[in-house]
Predict the structure.
Amino acid sequence: FFRDNIGNEVDILLENGAIALVVNVAQLIEKKSYASDSPISHDEKRQEKERRHTILVVDDSFTTRTLEKSILEANGFTVQIAVDGVEALAKLRIESIDLIISDLQMPRMDGFVLLEEVKHDQRLSKIPFVLVTSIDREEDRRRGLSLGAEAYIVKQRFDHQQLLDTIGQLL
């Protein structure tokens, strides 16, 4: 017997009473293409996994969150959103996040405090942290980097390719 395309068992007997092996070549080829052990398949699976990193975008500006989320999702990332540092910390405690992009100026908890909290939490401290902010002051850039941010991007000079290149270097 064998199972047909919808899972029913089917007996195949020849005229002399012997059981015949029936092979559905099209179905075998289809299954092989999904479960292939070829190097190409492994590379494709690895690339797909790499494209599925989860990024947490933390910004109180709806427009900025939406823009960053669109750019990241269009490039294969999974995106979580938080409107401030308090919400971001809550998500970080329950979600698996690969990288954080945060604004500096936000209500309840700003980006500097969020950055400090993340870098002082042993479980979260290895997550790359990118500051994307409208604050274009050298002292703020130095402060962010000294607190542990891996990058500091100014919104006025925002270039989505720069953001993607930065993320590519960090992940």
